[in-house]
Design goal:
The structure holds two protein chains of two kinds. Chain A is mostly helical. Chain A has a single domain (6-229), classed as Orthogonal Bundle (MetI-like fold), CATH 1.10.3720. Chain A is 80% helix and 0% strand. The mean pLDDT of chain A is 90. Chain B is an alpha/beta fold. Chain B has one domain (4-229): 3-Layer(aba) Sandwich (Rossmann fold). Chain B contains seven helices and eleven strands. Chain B has helices at residues 38-46, 94-105, 111-120, 136-148, 166-182, 194-200, 224-229, and strands at 4-12, 15-23, 27-31, 53-58, 61-65, 70-71, 79-82, 154-158, 187-191, 203-208, 211-216. In chain B, helix 2 runs parallel beside helix 4 and helix 4 (136-148) packs parallel to helix 5. Chain B is globular, with a radius of gyration of 17 Å. The two termini of chain B are 32 Å apart. The mean pLDDT of chain B is 89. Classes of the chains: A mainly alpha, B alpha/beta. The interface between A and B is medium-sized, with 23 and 29 residues.
Chain lengths: 231, 230
């Protein structure tokens, strides 16, 4: 049944690559933003919180369009990145990764923020009295204790990135081999007269991937929890 | 010889702390009812709380001086702190908890020192456990060991027995007495229990309502108002 054509393989590999890259890039930013929201009080905190959550409530097409305006080659950010760093997002797989990261970001920030909020700050004080500076306190106490939340956030973001459709197709279109992800390929196959068999194969793959991600996260989460909070 | 000199003011909600005392070697007990500001004082010595005014010096080092804007951060004070609730790191084993201070300072491993302190506190057989698997008394002994192994210049103990039941209190006290007699580290010991202070203290600073009401030896622990505290 899973006798995939070259085009289908390409879409599958591209989807995985986009989801992995999007999630990996999102982690440090999500930890930083989650930490700011959990620990700091500053002017504009509510606005930052709102901005982070915007992709969750906006129609994905709108997010995709905003990315196109901002990160297109003539957009203010896209133009700058192209002129100075040679980075191009528009109609490239990197753009698909950016869209996936933006869409998955709020789902990653939330559990990380919650995990950071529940950490006993007294443990950080104890670490400081034992000679750890603020960076070491963060790396050796805060971050390990927040790990279950980070794992949960990574899974949610990865799953969202893997399934992203609306923002991606709006921002970087549906180019086979470049921006045609699993979701976009399913959509395309359903549009053509004999495409249903191919679409069904991709659907099966999507379901298998979703389950695999769920089990992996469950397993990792349980391991982290037992490791850090005792048996 | 003065080791520790504290002269600080701090307003904390409804409590106005204005504390002045000096401590030599041995064990200085901060003794008084709850709400007297004892924990806030040790937090200021440790650097976890900044006084509004005054200064704190340890040996020749100025740790805090409001006038000169000196406030050495806690990680550079080298003051060991045993908290009331232990505060062991739940994600680390007992061995890693004990080793934490050495790792943070980048000192090379000293197996003999490690084994000596683990033996002194009777925690050698617990090294591979997680804090969650320990009894209250064991947890507190590990916390003491963790503070000692950072080679502190001063050891602060904030009601280290308060969270323990009577049996575990009897279990820990002899270790603390041994520590006083064997390790040449000055200690500040916070307690509201006269019996405890009588066994461990060499100097007593009596506090009430944020002020020092008397300083002296353990003879300060006699009298009706002390018995009323118990």
């Amino acid at each position: 049944m899973l006798d995939l054509s070259a085009a289908e393989w390409t879409a599958l590999k591209l989807s995985l690559r986009i989801a992995v890259v999007a999630t990996a890039w999102a982690v440090p930013f999500a930890v930083l933003i989650g930490w700011l929201l959990a620990r700091k009080n500053f002017w504009g905190k509510t606005i930052l919180d709102g901005l982070v959550h915007l992709p969750l409530v906006l129609p994905p097409v709108v997010t995709g369009y905003l990315l196109l305006i901002g990160f297109g080659r003539k957009g203010p950010i896209g133009g700058f990145l192209h002129d100075y760093f040679g980075i191009v997002f528009a109609f490239r797989w990197t753009g698909a990764a950016l869209a996936a990261a933006v869409m998955g970001f709020p789902l990653m920030v939330r559990p990380i923020r919650l995990a950071l909020e529940t950490i006993d700050r007294h443990l950080e004080d104890a670490a400081a009295t034992l000679g750890a500076n603020r960076v070491l306190v963060f790396l050796t106490v805060t971050l390990p204790l927040a790990l279950p939340g980070i794992i949960a956030g990574v899974l949610l973001c990865f799953a969202r990135a893997l399934g992203e459709f609306g923002a991606t197709i709006t921002f970087v279109s549906n180019i086979p081999g470049e921006t045609q992800t699993l979701s976009a390929a399913i959509y395309t196959f359903l549009q053509i007269p004999d495409g249903e068999a191919a679409a069904v194969r991709m659907v099966v793959i999507a379901i298998v991937l979703a389950f695999a991600a769920l089990f992996a996260a469950e397993w990792l989460g349980r391991r982290a929890t037992t490791r850090f909070h005792g048996e | 010889m003065t080791v520790l000199a504290v002269d600080v003011d701090k307003v904390l909600g409804g409590l106005k702390l204005a504390v002045h005392f000096r401590a030599a070697g041995g064990v200085t007990a901060l003794f008084g009812p709850s709400g007297a500001g004892k924990t806030s004082i040790v937090n200021m010595i440790a650097g976890l709380l900044s006084p509004d005014r005054g200064h704190i010096t340890l040996d020749d080092t100025v740790l805090f001086d409001a006038a000169r804007r000196i406030d050495v951060p806690p990680h550079r004070r080298r003051i060991g702190y045993v908290f009331q609730e232990g505060r062991l790191f739940p994600h680390l084993s007992v061995r890693q908890n004990l080793d934490y201070g050495r790792r943070m300072s980048g000192r090379p491993r000293d197996v003999r020192e490690f084994e000596r302190i683990a033996a002194l506190l009777g925690i050698t057989q617990l090294l591979n456990r997680r804090p969650r698997m320990l009894s209250g008394g064991e947890r507190q002994r590990v916390a003491i060991g963790r503070a000692l192994l950072m080679r502190p210049r001063l050891l602060l103990l904030d009601e280290p027995l308060a969270s323990l039941d009577a049996g575990h209190k009897r279990e820990i006290l002899p270790y603390l007495v041994r520590l006083r007699d064997e390790a040449a580290i000055p200690m500040v010991y916070v307690s509201h229990t006269a019996a405890e202070v009588r066994r461990i203290a060499t100097t007593v600073v009596r506090l009430d309502g944020g002020r020092v009401v008397a300083t002296g030896g353990i003879e300060l622990l006699a009298g009706p108002e002390v018995e009323a505290l118990e």
